[in-house]
Design goal:
single chain; 89 residues; 4-stranded antiparallel β-sheet; Alpha-Beta Plaits
Length: 89
């Protein structure tokens, strides 16, 4: 399954926070999670992450381990070309 995570850091970004996030990403990829893209953004969110996980439970665990330092909104993403009634868009 494909997920989009929209995250806002709760405190000012520091080397320690970035380091912890990198450790979490490394740990996630040893399991069932595959990161497709990670973007720094301007505006409402600080980062947008596109990742694959086998199900919602695994995706939720990805988010829960970061809740102490980020507010995260997670969306299930469904490719439009797979679900359009008349075929690919």
């Amino acid at each position: 399954m494909l997920f989009i995570a929209l995250a806002k850091f709760k405190t000012k970004l520091s080397k320690e926070i970035v380091s912890q996030n990198m450790k979490d990403i490394e740990e996630d990829t040893k399991g069932q999670v595959r990161y497709l893209n990670i973007y720094w953004t301007l505006g409402r969110y600080d980062t947008v992450v596109l990742f694959e996980a086998p199900d919602e439970k695994v995706a939720m665990n990805v988010v829960l381990k970061r809740m102490d330092r980020m507010d995260i909104e997670t969306l299930v993403a469904v490719p439009a070309d797979e679900n359009h009634p008349s075929g690919p868009v």
